[in-house]
Amino acid sequence: MAKSAKSSFRCAECGWTTLKWVGRCGECQAWGTVEEAGAPAPTAVAPTRVATSARPITEIDVETAHAAPTGLDELDRVLGGGVVPGGVMLLAGEPGVGKSTLLLEVAALSADAGPVLYVTGEESTGQVRLRAERLGALSPKLFLAAETTVGAVASHVDAVAPALLIVDSVQTMSAPEVSGVPGGVTQVREVAGALIRIAKERGIATVLVGHVTKDGSIAGPRMLEHLVDVVLQFEGDRHSRLRMLRAVKNRYGPTDEIGCFDLGEAGIIGLPDPSGLFLTRRNEPVPGTCVTVTLEGRRPLIAEVQALVAPTNLPQPRRATSGLDQARVNMALAVLERRAGVRLANADVYLSTVGGVRLGEPSVDLALALAVAGSARDEALPRGLAALGEVGLAGEVRAVDGVERRLIEAQRLGFTRAIVPRHSEVPVEGIEVVGVDDVSEALASALPARRRRSH
């Protein structure tokens, strides 16, 4: 008697397979994602009727694939010009960061060019209307619907025939014919697949809102990010008004652009020049502060690093950071003490950025080191000084990318002197560029009081 084919089990996150069910995936270590895949399908595929016949690539019409501006310049910058008909975007962010506010603003602006359907599964239409009134985002071509099933969304699409569809959020939608709770792996996969089919078949630009997990990754199966055309990450500290939009994946444009927004009571507005938000306006220089130029995508941003070094009697001094990478901070402090003679073993060190910006780029290392050294010695850096460069464990200052763009931005905002890695001295009119080899040389160049005492 022939032995029947055994069913297998597959992880919905990474595709790992096993012959028996387990609660945790053996590859990606995710819980509750292993599902029965059924018996293996036959290898032979029968030909079926095609929707449209294949044509030479030179005869394909590209007019319908051009991006249409949304009316929000910072969003268009990230997308590469705007939304593409039939393109599906996934917008993810932490709760309360302003995803719904951003999309409501986009919906109102896009409604000038054609009907927009906004489907909410988390709020009532009355609640969305109240927010739209507060934001001034009312338009007769903006249609609202409160639904939680993907079939109802398809019915609204047939009735409205929108040019833009917004679904807030994909985790609240469900497909009744599929088992599982809304937000589960199976439901999210099925709902996303149905919405993507609707967008592709009817040429509707679609935005799906997605939740994030505790570690900041997008909730749901990993294949969700592979199915959509664009993955956008909306970031920001809820205690700050600054918001940043990044393109993690973009089939239609660049992935190294960011959009900056100001989230306030009156709504969300784009910030074409956000550098001023990350600086402190003061009359006299203060010890423990240093300005640097970071690259967010291809955009240079001026940011300020602040440090406070305070003596302590604790056996283990505190090391607290806000807006900076803790690992890089610890390495920079160790290099300062070992290579530059800055004593920090008996002192608490507090480091922060201005304006709530997060600086994780290695080019911030030199500014961080100068700020800590200035605070430890109670010496202020000269006015109009900026520093950029990566600090190595041997104390050397390494080169970074985009030095010329950074220096041009610093000169535009009134800085007259910049400390950069040796052999990265790009001449820029109006700013003195000083090249250094190591941290000790940078400290001698940046702290004139220390240089005078050495003589």
From TrEMBL:
SMART domains: AAA (SM00382). Residues 348-455 are annotated as: Lon-protease-like. A motif (RadA KNRFG motif) lies at residues 249-253. Keywords: ATP-binding, DNA damage, DNA repair, DNA-binding, Hydrolase, Metal-binding, Nucleotide-binding, Stress response, Zinc, Zinc-finger. Residues 64-212 form the RecA family profile domain. ATP binds at residues 93-100. Signal peptide: none annotated. Pfam families: AAA_25, ChlI, Zn_ribbon_LapB. InterPro entries: AAA+_ATPase (IPR003593), DNA_repair_RadA (IPR004504), P-loop_NTPase (IPR027417), RecA_ATP-bd (IPR020588), Ribosomal_Su5_D2-typ_SF (IPR020568), Ribsml_uS5_D2-typ_fold_subgr (IPR014721), Rubredoxin_2 (IPR041166). The middle region has homology to RecA with ATPase motifs including the RadA KNRFG motif, while the C-terminus is homologous to Lon protease. Plays a role in repairing double-strand DNA breaks, probably involving stabilizing or processing branched DNA or blocked replication forks. DNA-dependent ATPase involved in processing of recombination intermediates, plays a role in repairing DNA breaks. Stimulates the branch migration of RecA-mediated strand transfer reactions, allowing the 3' invading strand to extend heteroduplex DNA faster. Binds ssDNA in the presence of ADP but not other nucleotides, has ATPase activity that is stimulated by ssDNA and various branched DNA structures, but inhibited by SSB. Does not have RecA's homology-searching function. Belongs to the RecA family. RadA subfamily. This is DNA repair protein RadA. It comes from Nocardiopsis suaedae.
